[in-house]
Each structure stands twice: as C-alpha cells, then as structure tokens.
C-alpha cells in the first residue's frame, strides 16, 4: 500500500471538513477519529512490512506519519483548551491563554536544539532521530506516554508531531487573545482568514519565499519592507517565522542551491507544464 497516498487522502478530508470556530465541534471530533484511524492503519502496515531502505523509513516517520500525528495532537489540544476555557470573566480567559502560551514556550526552550534542527532543515541526525533502531539510545521524557511501541515509534517522531502541532497552536492562541483584547477589530476572521491554508513546508522555505517576493519587486512595485511581507505571510499561512533575518543569514551560508525552495517551485511548475504538453 502507498503510505504517502493515505496521508494525502487524509489531508484532503481535513480540507473538506475545514472546521471553523468554535473548534470544539462535531468536525473537530471527526478529525480526531480520522487521524487515530489512519495511525492505526499505518501501525498495522509498518509492522507487517519492512521498509526497503533507511531513507524510506526516515521519510515515513519524519513526514508521512506526521500528517495524522501532528493533526491529532493539534486538534486534541484545541478541543481540550476549548473544553476547559473559562466561560466568564475576560481577565481569567486572558490569563488562561497566556498560561498555555507559557507552557508552549517552555516546550520550545526545553527542546531548543531539536527546534533549530527542524527549522534549519538539517538532516545529519535523521537516522538517529527517525529510525526505530535508535529508539533505546535517546531516552526522551517529552510526553505523557511512558511506553512507545518499538515497531511504530522512533526516539523523535512524537516530539516532531508536538513541534508541528504547537507551532499551529501558537497562532491560534495569539489570535484568540487578540480577539479578547480587541473584540471590535477581529471577530475571529484572522483565525483562519476564511480558509484552512496551513504552511506545511519548513520555516526556512517560507523565509525564502518572503525574500524572493521582496527582492523581485512584485509587491507594491517594490515599495514594501521585508517585515510587512513576513508578517503577512505568517498570518496567511499560520506560520511563525521567528527571527527571519537570522534564518536568511543561514540560507546565505548554504554551499549548494541557496534558493532551494524557490528552485523546487520552479522545477515543479515546469515539470507539470511539460507533462501537460505531452
């Protein structure tokens, strides 16, 4: 069976559901069930059939499994947050959100090395992080789960799932807090901008796109600051770019294919156009 196809199909189902505020809804519960079911299916397939190469195993645990896993974590966190959200007293609501933000910030600080590893698209530890043979070598206490099935978990795949989900959760919390502090300005339209577009490539890739748009002069005839483009893209795609100036400096240090994501965009479109001409 094509594991990647299953992940694509789940993504399509989630896009069709497109749950809106409030998140604690029937659609949210449906998403949680869909993600759990796919993880169960993945578990059975992975146990029954070995990966032909290490590269395929890494791809599964680092990318494919993350589709149901990170969505399961994200929507479970949203559901829990909304169920426990104070129903009265705006001050208590704001304090509740800030408390959750602090916990997420502590998560990123505690895992700062791994955060940098993922954000900077590093791969040199992938075999240790995302293959099962190294599960016992990295004893990570980052979850409530004290037992991880050795056939279906690596040392860092669940950590990556939380990393991806918490990045999305930060945006949700900031927008919810902004709504409480400025109820006349937002009314939740910023939470999804009437769509469910989620940036699923890396922060580095989006930073490349921001700088490409800036230097091309394609926006406002070039009369725009990097900061404005970065903030707009962050909002549209629900991705916190963080210190994008530092990220750009890291991109400049690449030895090969500095504009890796932009090159990929060009290649993908050209390949599609050529295939349609055949």
Features:
mainly alpha, 278 residues, 13 helices, single chain
How would you describe this structure to a colleague?
This protein has two domains: 3-194, no CATH class; 199-278, no CATH class. Helix 1 (3-17) runs antiparallel to helix 2 (26-48). It has helices at residues 3-17, 26-48, 54-64, 66-83, 90-110, 112-119, 126-129, 157-181, 189-192, 203-216, 226-237, 244-252, 260-277. The longest helix is centred in the middle third of the chain and has 25 residues, at 157-181. The two termini are 29 Å apart. The protein is built from 13 helices and no strands. With 278 residues, it is an all-alpha fold.
Which SSEs are present, and which pair or pack?
Layout: H1 3-17, H2 26-48, H3 54-64, H4 66-83, H5 90-110, H6 112-119, H7 126-129, H8 157-181, H9 189-192, H10 203-216, H11 226-237, H12 244-252, H13 260-277
């Amino acid at each position: 069976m094509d594991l990647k196809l299953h992940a694509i199909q789940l993504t399509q189902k989630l896009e069709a559901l497109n749950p809106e505020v409030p998140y604690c809804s029937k659609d949210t519960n449906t998403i949680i069930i869909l993600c759990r079911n796919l993880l169960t299916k993945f578990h059975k397939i992975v146990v029954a059939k070995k990966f032909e190469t290490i590269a395929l195993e890494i791809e599964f645990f680092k990318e494919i499994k993350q589709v149901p896993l990170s969505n399961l974590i994200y929507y479970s966190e949203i559901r829990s947050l909304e169920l426990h959200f104070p129903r009265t007293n705006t001050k208590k609501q704001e304090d509740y959100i800030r408390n959750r933000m602090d916990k997420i910030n502590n998560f990123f600080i505690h895992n700062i090395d791994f955060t940098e590893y993922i954000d900077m698209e590093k791969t040199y530890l992938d075999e240790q992080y995302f293959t099962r043979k190294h599960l016992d070598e990295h004893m990570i206490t980052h979850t409530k789960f004290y037992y991880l099935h050795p056939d279906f978990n690596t040392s860092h795949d669940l950590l990556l799932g939380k990393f991806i989900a918490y990045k999305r959760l930060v945006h949700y919390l900031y927008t919810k807090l902004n709504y409480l502090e400025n109820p006349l300005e937002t009314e939740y339209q910023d939470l999804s901008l009437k769509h469910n577009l989620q940036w699923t490539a890396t922060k580095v890739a989006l930073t490349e796109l921001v700088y490409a748009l800036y230097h091309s002069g394609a926006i406002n005839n070039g009369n725009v600051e990097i900061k404005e483009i970065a903030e707009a893209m962050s909002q549209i795609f629900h991705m916190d770019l963080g210190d994008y100036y530092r990220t750009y400096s890291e991109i400049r240090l690449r030895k090969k294919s500095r504009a890796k994501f932009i090159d990929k965009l060009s290649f993908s479109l050209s390949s599609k156009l050529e295939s349609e001409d055949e």
